[in-house]
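Annotated sample (chain length 133).
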Amino acid sequence: MKPNNIITLTAFLTALTQLDEPLPENIQTQLNNISKALIIAPNNIGNLDAIAASYLPLDEVYQTELATIDKNVGERTKGLKPLPLPTEPTRELTNAAINVFSNDNSVSAAKKAVEPNLLERVRDYINGRIGNG
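Output written by the structure step:
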């Protein structure tokens, strides 16, 4: 998986946890399809950027999350030579995405399945503070 895909997936899942209403049916259907693709190939996250952009409430939170993660990734490059971004998602992140995206209500599923400590661990992983676990 490309490093940006891990960041995209983390930001998308985080954004889902912050929504108050279920996703429109067409977006939910796209996420259901992505969950099937992730089961077959854990690197296939589809086009989550385009999905987020197609629904303003999701896109606003998603863009904020991307900026937050990007800012933190930038901090790790100060001083010493930067560590390479991870290329493999954690199993927890992949499983959480499959579980959330395959549900009929991904917003509700994200709030139940995606624990804040999981997202914090993934952010630490992206920022090179912990290894893949």
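Annotation: Residues 3-126 form one domain.
Annotation: The radius of gyration is 14 Å.
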